[in-house]
C-alpha cells in the first residue's frame, strides 16, 4: 500500500468543493520532506501562514515557499511581488531546484490555469522536468515529482484533458459517509495496478492514514499472467465470411438498388402476361360479404 | 430576466450581535463603511471624478480588473487615529458578486478582487469576508459556475440556501446547508455538513432541524 505513495512525474490531485485536496497535498509534502527530498511550494490560494499550519518546525524549515498569494498581480506595486507574474514565478521556481530528488507543489494548478494560457502552463510543466534532468542527478522521471492541486469543477474538458495527458498519475478525491477516498489512475504502471481506490484520512499532524480499498469499490484489473481470451471464440453465429461467401455477397444486387440494367428492364415492356399474381385462400371462419367486404371490422 | 442592479459593500468592525443594530449610528461613528453600488454608479456617469471611482469599470469598455474597487476596500480599512485602528476584526460583506458578472466583469476578474480582499481583510487585518453569490442552476452559464465554484474553493465555510424540495410552505421558508471546508480538525467522524430549515422573521431568522418547525410540532 505504501508503494502507491511513491509518486513521480506530474501528479494531479483532483479535488472538489465537497472533498478538498489541500490536506492530502500537505500530507504528501510532509512525506517528501521526511524522505529527505527538497520541497518547493508555489502558494497562490492561501497565505503562507495558513499553508504552513500543521507542519512542525523541522519540516517547515525544509520547505522553500514562493508566495504568490499576497500580491500576485502587482496591484500594490511595492516591489515585493514575484517578478514576471504567475508564469514568471513558476519558471523561476523551476530554475532554483538543485539536482537530486525534488518535490514541487503547486497550490494550485487551477489558480494558474485560470490566469495563464493552457499551452503556456503545459509548456512550463514540461520545461520543469527537462531543466531538472539537465542539471544532472539521473532521469527526471525518477527525480522530480510535481504535485498539482486541481479543482475539477473549474475547468472544461480541454484544459483538463491537456493536463491529464501530461500527468503520470491522477488522484481523484471523493468519499462517502464522511470517509475520504482517492481514486488513483497511473498512466505508466510498473508494479502497481493502473487503477486503484484507497480510503484514507489525514491526521492532525498531517500524517496519511491509508485504510485500503473496500471490496465493493475496487476496480477489477487484468491479471498479467492470464492469457487474453478471444471474445468471439464461442459464439453461436458466424462473424466472419469465407472468400466464396464474400464474393457472393459483393455480387448481390439489392432489391431497391437502382441500376441502369434495372432501368432498361422497367422501360421495356415484358413479353407475355404479368408474371406475379396474388392468390387468396379464405379460411373456414372468414365471413366474406361481397357487398360489404369490411363488415367484419365493426368500424 | 432583468437582474436587480445592486452591488453593495459593507465593511463593519466588530458588529454587535444583538437584535436591532442601528446601521445609521454605526455609520456615523465609523463602525460601518457602506458603499451603495446603485447610488454610487450615478456618480460614475454624471459627475467628474478626480480619482478612479470604485465602480470605474462601469465606464470602461474593456475593464480588465476591479482594482479600484479593491483600493476602496483597502482605504476603508486603514487606521484613522494616530496610526492605530479604532476598530478591530473587520468584516467585509459583499452583496452580491453575481451582479458584477451581469455588469460585464469576467469571473476571473471578480475572483481576483476577492483574492486581494482576502489577502487584506483576512490575512493582514485578521478579519472575515461574507460574500453572496447566486446559483441559478444553469449549467450553461460558465462564468457564473466558475465564479461560484472558484469562490467555494476559497471558502472555509459555505452556506447554501435553497427552497424546500417539496415546494412552498408558509412556515418554512427554505433550508440551509452548511459545509465546512476547513481541514483544521480532520477526523473521519466529524460532520462535514449539516442541513437546517429556517423561517425568516422580522429582524431575525429561526433555524430548526428538518421537519421540526414549531408550526408542525
TrEMBL record, chain A:
<feature type="region of interest" description="Disordered">
    <location>
        <begin position="210"/>
        <end position="231"/>
    </location>
</feature>
<protein>
    <recommendedName>
        <fullName>Elongator complex protein 5</fullName>
    </recommendedName>
</protein>
<dbReference type="GO" id="GO:0002098">
    <property type="term" value="P:tRNA wobble uridine modification"/>
</dbReference>
<keyword id="KW-0539">Nucleus</keyword>
<dbReference type="Pfam" id="PF10483">
    <property type="entry name" value="Elong_Iki1"/>
</dbReference>
<feature type="compositionally biased region" description="Acidic residues">
    <location>
        <begin position="283"/>
        <end position="299"/>
    </location>
</feature>
<comment type="similarity">
    <text>Belongs to the ELP5 family.</text>
</comment>
<dbReference type="GO" id="GO:0033588">
    <property type="term" value="C:elongator holoenzyme complex"/>
</dbReference>
<dbReference type="GO" id="GO:0005634">
    <property type="term" value="C:nucleus"/>
</dbReference>
<keyword id="KW-0819">tRNA processing</keyword>
<comment type="pathway">
    <text>tRNA modification; 5-methoxycarbonylmethyl-2-thiouridine-tRNA biosynthesis.</text>
</comment>
<keyword id="KW-0963">Cytoplasm</keyword>
<dbReference type="GO" id="GO:0000049">
    <property type="term" value="F:tRNA binding"/>
</dbReference>
<dbReference type="GO" id="GO:0005829">
    <property type="term" value="C:cytosol"/>
</dbReference>
<feature type="region of interest" description="Disordered">
    <location>
        <begin position="260"/>
        <end position="299"/>
    </location>
</feature>
<dbReference type="InterPro" id="IPR019519">
    <property type="entry name" value="Elp5"/>
</dbReference>
Automatic annotation (TrEMBL), chain B:
<dbReference type="InterPro" id="IPR018627">
    <property type="entry name" value="ELP6"/>
</dbReference>
<dbReference type="GO" id="GO:0005737">
    <property type="term" value="C:cytoplasm"/>
</dbReference>
<dbReference type="InterPro" id="IPR027417">
    <property type="entry name" value="P-loop_NTPase"/>
</dbReference>
<dbReference type="GO" id="GO:0033588">
    <property type="term" value="C:elongator holoenzyme complex"/>
</dbReference>
<protein>
    <recommendedName>
        <fullName>Elongator complex protein 6</fullName>
    </recommendedName>
</protein>
<comment type="subunit">
    <text>Component of the elongator complex which consists of ELP1, ELP2, ELP3, ELP4, ELP5 and ELP6.</text>
</comment>
<comment type="function">
    <text>Component of the elongator complex which is required for multiple tRNA modifications, including mcm5U (5-methoxycarbonylmethyl uridine), mcm5s2U (5-methoxycarbonylmethyl-2-thiouridine), and ncm5U (5-carbamoylmethyl uridine). The elongator complex catalyzes formation of carboxymethyluridine in the wobble base at position 34 in tRNAs. Involved in cell migration.</text>
</comment>
<dbReference type="Pfam" id="PF09807">
    <property type="entry name" value="ELP6"/>
</dbReference>
<keyword id="KW-0819">tRNA processing</keyword>
<dbReference type="GO" id="GO:0002098">
    <property type="term" value="P:tRNA wobble uridine modification"/>
</dbReference>
<dbReference type="GO" id="GO:0005634">
    <property type="term" value="C:nucleus"/>
</dbReference>
<comment type="pathway">
    <text>tRNA modification; 5-methoxycarbonylmethyl-2-thiouridine-tRNA biosynthesis.</text>
</comment>
<keyword id="KW-0539">Nucleus</keyword>
<comment type="similarity">
    <text>Belongs to the ELP6 family.</text>
</comment>
<keyword id="KW-0963">Cytoplasm</keyword>
Amino acid at each position: 500500500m505504501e508503494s502507491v505513495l511513491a509518486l513521480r512525474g506530474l501528479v494531479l490531485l483532483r479535488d472538489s468543493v465537497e472533498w478538498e485536496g489541500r490536506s492530502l497535498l500537505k500530507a504528501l509534502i510532509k512525506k517528501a520532506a521526511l524522505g529527505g527530498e527538497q520541497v518547493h511550494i508555489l502558494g497562490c490560494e492561501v497565505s503562507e501562514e495558513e499553508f504552513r499550519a500543521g507542519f512542525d518546525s523541522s519540516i517547515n524549515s525544509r520547505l522553500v515557499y514562493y508566495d504568490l498569494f499576497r500580491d500576485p498581480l502587482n496591484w500594490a506595486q511595492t516591489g515585493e511581488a514575484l517578478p514576471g507574474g504567475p508564469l514568471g514565478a513558476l519558471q523561476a521556481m523551476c530554475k532554483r531546484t538543485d539536482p537530486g530528488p525534488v518535490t514541487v507543489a503547486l497550490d494550485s494548478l487551477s489558480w494558474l490555469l485560470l490566469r495563464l494560457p493552457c499551452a503556456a502552463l503545459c509548456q512550463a510543466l514540461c520545461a520543469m522536468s527537462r531543466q531538472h534532468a539537465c542539471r544532472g542527478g539521473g532521469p527526471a522521471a525518477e527525480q522530480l515529482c510535481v504535485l498539482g492541486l486541481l479543482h475539477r469543477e473549474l475547468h472544461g474538458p480541454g484544459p483538463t484533458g491537456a493536463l491529464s495527458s501530461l500527468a503520470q498519475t491522477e488522484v481523484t478525491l471523493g468519499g462517502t459517509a464522511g470517509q475520504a477516498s482517492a481514486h488513483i489512475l497511473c498512466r505508466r504502471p510498473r508494479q502497481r495496478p493502473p487503477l486503484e481506490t484507497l480510503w484514507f484520512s489525514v491526521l492532525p499532524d498531517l500524517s496519511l492514514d491509508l485504510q485500503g480499498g473496500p471490496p465493493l469499490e475496487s476496480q477489477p484489473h487484468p491479471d498479467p499472467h492470464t492469457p487474453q481470451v478471444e471474445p468471439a471464440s464461442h459464439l453461436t453465429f458466424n462473424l466472419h465470411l469465407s472468400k466464396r461467401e464474400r464474393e457472393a455477397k459483393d455480387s448481390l444486387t439489392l432489391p431497391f438498388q437502382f441500376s441502369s440494367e434495372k432501368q432498361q428492364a422497367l422501360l421495356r415492356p415484358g413479353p407475355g402476361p404479368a408474371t406475379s399474381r396474388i392468390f387468396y385462400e379464405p379460411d373456414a371462419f372468414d365471413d366474406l360479404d361481397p357487398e360489404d367486404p369490411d363488415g367484419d371490422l365493426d368500424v | 430576466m432583468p437582474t436587480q442592479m445592486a452591488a453593495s459593500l459593507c465593511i463593519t468592525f466588530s458588529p454587535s450581535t444583538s437584535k436591532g443594530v442601528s446601521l445609521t449610528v454605526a455609520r456615523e461613528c465609523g463602525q460601518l463603511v457602506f458603499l451603495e453600488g446603485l447610488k454610487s454608479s450615478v456618480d460614475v456617469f454624471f459627475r467628474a471624478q478626480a480619482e478612479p471611482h470604485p465602480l470605474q469599470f462601469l465606464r470602461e469598455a474593456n475593464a480588465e480588473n476591479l482594482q479600484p474597487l479593491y483600493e476602496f476596500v483597502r482605504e476603508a480599512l486603514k487606521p484613522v487615529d494616530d496610526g492605530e485602528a479604532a476598530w478591530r476584526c473587520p468584516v467585509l460583506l459583499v452583496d452580491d458578486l453575481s451582479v458584477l458578472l451581469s455588469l460585464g466583469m469576467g469571473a476571473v476578474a471578480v475572483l481576483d478582487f476577492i483574492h486581494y480582499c482576502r489577502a487584506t481583510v483576512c490575512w493582514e487585518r485578521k478579519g472575515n469576508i461574507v460574500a453572496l453569490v447566486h446559483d441559478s442552476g444553469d449549467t450553461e452559464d460558465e462564468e457564473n459556475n466558475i465564479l461560484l465554484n472558484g469562490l467555494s474553493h476559497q471558502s472555509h465555510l459555505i452556506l447554501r440556501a435553497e427552497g424546500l424540495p417539496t415546494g412552498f410552505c408558509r412556515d418554512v421558508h427554505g433550508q440551509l446547508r452548511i459545509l465546512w471546508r476547513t481541514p483544521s480538525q480532520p477526523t473521519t467522524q466529524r460532520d462535514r455538513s449539516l442541513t437546517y430549515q429556517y423561517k425568516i422573521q422580522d429582524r431575525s431568522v429561526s433555524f430548526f432541524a428538518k421537519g421540526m418547525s414549531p408550526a408542525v410540532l
